[in-house]
Amino acid sequence: MTLPVLTRQEGIRTAIEVSIERRPAPDAGSLSERDAVWPQRLRRIARAALTYWGRPDLIDNAELLLTELVTNALRHGHGRTIGLRMYLSGGRFRIEVQDASPDRPELRYACPTDESGRGLFLVDALAEAWGVSDDGTTTWCTLPLTEGPSDMEPAAVTAPVLREALLHLPTNPSAVAAARISGRTRLTMLDWPGNVHAAIDVLGCLVDNAVKYGLTPGKTGQKLSARLGVTETHELVIDVTDPNPNFPNFTDATDGTLGRGLWKARELGSQLSWFVAPDFEGKTVRAVIKPGEADR
Hints:
It contains eight helices and eleven strands. By secondary structure, it is α+β, with helices and mostly antiparallel strands. The chain folds into two domains: about 1-145, Heat Shock Protein 90 (2-Layer Sandwich), CATH 3.30.565.10; about 160-290, Histidine kinase-like ATPase, C-terminal domain (Heat Shock Protein 90). Strands 1-2-3-4-6-5 form a six-stranded antiparallel β-sheet, covered by helices on one side. Strands 7-8-9-11-10 form a five-stranded antiparallel β-sheet, sandwiched between helices. Strand 1 and strand 2 (about 10-20) form a beta hairpin. The radius of gyration is 21 Å and the shape is elongated. It comes from Streptomyces glaucus. InterPro entries: Anti-sigma-factor_SerPK, HATPase_C_sf, HATPase_dom. This is ATP-binding protein.
């Protein structure tokens, strides 16, 4: 593997370029064990890049699109290497996968009983647009950089996220205690060099806010989750996602005019923001905490 490379071109914000060596399986159309690990590794790179670029709202769709394009290239490519390029340009996020195969991939509709064949169908459904280069060797797709209803950007993350942990939480008041217990364990595993006691308090505040204002009492099928991430510069990113896409009084909530939950999180040293999470059909409230002296 060639490590991710940051490049700059006219009209393009910082791009990620990765080159990996294929290890094809003996059976055509199958994935070898060595090749099968690449989609997950590249998803981590995409998540880190989009978080760094301040576009976490694109992560879920980008990961799905990337998985399908890379898997297709690994299965059917002819060259020894697969090239991946991701970048923001012209109001769009673009993914390009180069596999050296002149055979143009074609969209087909799989039958309900088929176990495969839905890759490009999924790309066609999720992407704003997709296509193939004239020589057939590169498949690309785009996602629009749409603006959410929030009037603020997600709290700045100054470096890529290196390690992260996801917490699936119950959709009732017990979520706060569950988050605090699981969060402490996850922070220990993530080895974050900061004030863990304060971080757990911040996590509890965000989850409590989500339970009180993000859930609809009595409604079934709701989801509540938290994600903890540690960046390359040792910042801690806490994202709590709930089903309610609106937060009209965010400023009042953080300055203490409306309740003390998020105000307390801010007083504990976190930088707060919120943004729409379209694939979750809800929103994410984010806290970014700088590293400090460990207090475990």
